[in-house]
Amino acid sequence: MSALFEPYTLRDVTIPNRVWMPPMCQYSAAPAGPEAGAPTDWHFAHYAARATGGTGLIIVEATAVGPEGRISPYDLGIWNDTQVEALHRITRFLAAQGTVPAIQLAHAGRKASTDQPWKGGAPVGPQAYGWQPYAPSALAFDERHPVPDELTVDQIREIVGQFGDAARRALAAGFEIAEIHGAHGYLINEFLSPHSNHRTDAYGGSYGNRTRFALEVVDAVREVWPDDKPLIFRISATEWLDEGGWTADDTVRFAAGLRAHGVDLLDVSTGGNASGVRIPVGPGYQVPFAARVRSESGLPVAAVGLITEVEQAEKIVANGEADAVLLGRELLRNPSWARHAARELGGEVRVPDQYHRSV
Length: 359
Known about the structure:
Layout: E1 8-10, E2 13-15, E3 19-21, H1 41-52, E4 57-64, E5 76-77, H2 81-96, E6 100-106, E7 134-135, E8 149-150, H3 153-172, E9 177-182, H4 187-192, H5 207-210, H6 212-224, E10 231-236, H7 248-260, E11 265-269, H8 287-297, E12 301-304, H9 310-318, E13 324-326, H10 329-333, H11 337-345
Parallel strand pairs: 3-4, 3-13, 4-5, 4-6, 6-9, 7-8, 9-10, 10-11, 11-12, 12-13
Antiparallel strand pairs: 1-2
Helix pairs in contact: 1-2, 3-6, 7-8
């Protein structure tokens, strides 16, 4: 029996295999008007293809809890009912294929209001549907980005409430699993790290203060997210800084805190909060961070980062380095990766009747 194709259960949700799709922004929603932030036919086709290809869990891309939480004006959002109904079309189809639908709830913080990456990804202003970003501290991400406004405590509390409201809408849209985006230099990550959080109030300074916002968000989501449905948290396990940043030791410590607040699995990535750092990118380069979290905290993990080969993915799960693998670029290249891997490993995936000739 292939470890990669054993079902995996979190709370009362059983995922048919360990081949999962991480959130990957498509930057393809309408930037303004009544359809702003709602998924389009592109999103439906994109996610449907990976579901028919046998992917066990699909995490829909970073979906902003408020308009100013989008990375770009073209991001998905979940702050109104129009978005909910359009997302429901996707979750219905995914579930019909046997794929578990999940969604990443996100706020971009100081990295918000940028253009589509294939147009350069530079910050945009009001003339291009942009806005003034805000963050824990008035520190720009890099020389290209504007200095964000520092959030007031009242604004912080408002955003915590937005995450809770977004979770309610995600449930109405048919999602079985929610993921909170705490990685890659976006708002929650900005609060966690002393590199980007220079506050002197209850949300900055000590480890306990810097993790306060993240745990308040987790509590707000967990309060409305049903007890039988899992909650995932995505984290950057390290910022790859020699000093002054969030570290792997912090991640292991924080994993225990997240578990105590009702998080069921940690989605372990790295980087994104500090510009100009050197990252030793290579096959499976982030897997050791996931393995350490799993070993030292007891919290289940999913590994991500240049996992491309079938044998590589199988070993990660079989060796207990992670409970599942998240394939990003490889699923963009090959939506049916799971089906091909199952054939190679002797595993099984659901094949739509219409594709019976592919078996």
